[in-house]
């Protein structure tokens, strides 16, 4: 199976999707019902610990998991009020509904996602 890195609406996303900029993030959150956005940095230890959790959630849930590198996209991170990494923002029906800072456990993240996918 080939993966469309743009995240087409008719495609199931079973791995985290790198975000290429503000327009791409808006496109992804508009196309998909539930999107969990991970604002991360490569040098961040908790971000690295969260990576396998997010990969699992992308594979196991209906949500699209999107990743924003805060070093590459500082303005985008700033526009969402990201002050520390990892910061996770949850979008439902194109609107931001949750934001959490820190590496949260898989069951807590799954619960947040399921609240908006049922």
UniProtKB/TrEMBL annotation:
Q: Does the keyword Electron transport apply?
A: yes
Q: Name one GO molecular function term.
A: protein-disulfide reductase activity
Keyword Electron transport tagged: yes
What keywords tag this UniProt record? Disulfide bond, Electron transport, Redox-active center, Transport
Q: What is the lineage of its organism?
A: Archaea, Methanobacteriati, Methanobacteriota, Stenosarchaea group, Halobacteria
What the entry lists under InterPro entries is as follows: Thioredoxin, Thioredoxin-like_sf, Thioredoxin_CS, Thioredoxin_domain
Q: Offer a single GO CC term for the protein.
A: cytoplasm
Highest taxon of the lineage: Archaea
Q: Which Gene3D superfamilies match?
A: Glutaredoxin (3.40.30.10)
Q: What is the name attached to this protein's record?
A: Thioredoxin
Signal peptide limits? none
The segment(s) forming the Thioredoxin domain are 1-118
Instruction: Note down the stretches annotated as region Disordered.
Output: 1-20
């Amino acid at each position: 199976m080939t993966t469309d890195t743009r995240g087409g609406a008719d495609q199931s996303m079973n791995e985290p999707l790198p975000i290429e900029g503000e327009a791409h993030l808006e496109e992804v959150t508009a196309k998909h019902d539930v999107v969990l956005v991970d604002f991360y940095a490569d040098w961040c230890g908790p971000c690295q610990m969260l990576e396998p959790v997010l990969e699992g959630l992308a594979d196991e849930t209906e949500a699209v998991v999107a990743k924003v590198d805060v070093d590459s996209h500082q303005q985008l991170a700033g526009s969402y009020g990201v002050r520390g990494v990892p910061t996770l923002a949850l979008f439902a029906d194109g609107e931001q509904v949750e934001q959490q800072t820190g590496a949260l456990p898989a069951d807590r993240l799954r619960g947040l996602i399921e609240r908006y996918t049922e």
